[in-house]
Design goal:
Distance between the termini: 59 Å
Shape: globular
EC number: 3.1.3.25
Largest sheet: 7 strands, mixed
Number of helices: 7
Keywords: Hydrolase, Magnesium, Metal-binding
Enzyme class: hydrolase
InterPro entries: Inositol_monoP_metal-BS, Inositol_monophosphatase-like, Inositol_monophosphatase_CS
CATH topology of the largest domain: Fructose-1,6-Bisphosphatase, Chain A, domain 1
Catalytic activity: a myo-inositol phosphate + H2O = myo-inositol + phosphate
Number of strands: 14
Structural class: alpha+beta
Order of helices and strands: HEEHEEHEEEEEEHEHEHEEH
């Protein structure tokens, strides 16, 4: 059970069909824009391209016209995502990859009701993959149902890991992230840093990855993937193990079994605040004592 209560006036199959058609409409522009340069500096080595802005404007206008539901986007904001029914869109997830000409990027679209996912779509045009689902499943990829996720073990799985900078502070300091990376590496078959939360979560929902660890909290990055993984029969929480909600500070997703193993490892790493740079002694790099 997902815990999402769907109002009677929401028709998920109809909304999925409309949303999928609109994502198909912008796919040619997404493909031809690969390699687009930075146009808007967001600070912190983050940026948007002109195509981010164009695609969000187009999707927001068409979604609102076709469904009567407001849209909250990464670039232009929008209605409150914690209450009522609202679309959430990330026009280009994995912008750094996309701008560098790497195909590890896509468009994410989700419908939330009172902060919980109702449906999600992740379009990965550069891989010719289109994932969509209502939270009660199944996941549909390129028009075909994906088998439900089966219980699995971490030692047999490939896990996607979120971005980190060893010197960073904030909610999840770099040292904390690296500690998790190291502890997971002791147990997992393989680790991958793909640079796109949407890609990580879609591949988890599709059974290609056993799970994914995301340190970000933005609705536009996480909502579509949360819907897809839940639809696939996976488990989605924050790093503390609480059910994912749009206000969650992080996201941990995985197949049954794998998610539990990851959650246990993360719990064992301890409190993120204990890993702030000023609290973590740096190892000696040699020299006279």
């Amino acid at each position: 059970m997902t815990g999402t209560v769907i109002p009677s006036d929401i028709d998920p199959p109809r909304l999925l069909s409309i949303a999928a058609g609109l994502l198909d409409d912008i796919t040619p522009r997404f493909i031809e824009g690969l390699g687009a340069p930075s146009a808007v500096d967001k600070g912190g080595n983050d940026f948007a391209t002109e195509l981010d802005l164009e695609l969000e404007r187009t999707l927001s206008a068409r979604l609102t016209e076709a469904t009567g539901i407001g849209v909250h986007g990464e670039e232009f904001g929008g209605p409150d995502v914690t209450s009522g029914t609202v679309w959430v869109v990330d026009p280009i997830d994995g912008t750094f990859n996309y701008s560098a000409g790497l195909p590890l990027a896509g468009t994410l679209l989700a419908l939330l009701h009172d902060g919980k996912p109702v449906l999600g779509l992740t379009w990965l045009p550069l891989f010719d993959l289109r994932y969509q689902a209502f939270v009660d499943g199944p996941v549909i990829c390129n028009g075909e149902p994906v088998p439900a996720l089966r219980p699995a073990r971490l030692q047999d799985s490939v896990i996607a890991f979120g971005a980190f900078n060893l010197n960073s502070g904030g909610r999840f300091p770099g040292n904390y992230r690296v500690e998790i990376l190291g502890e997971v590496s002791r147990e997992v078959s393989r680790l991958r840093l793909l640079g796109s939360t949407g890609l990580d979560m879609a591949l988890t929902a599709g059974g290609k990855l056993g799970g994914a660890i995301c340190f970000g909290h933005h609705a536009w990055d996480n909502a579509a993937g949360a819907a897809l993984v839940l639809a696939g029969g996976g488990v989605v929480t924050d790093l503390a193990g609480e059910p994912w909600h749009v206000t969650s500070s992080s996201m941990l997703a995985g197949s049954p079994g794998v998610h539990e193993e990851l959650a246990t490892i993360i719990e064992g790493v301890g409190d993120p605040a204990d890993y702030l740079p000023e609290r973590t002694p740096r190892p000696s790099r040699g020299g006279a004592s």
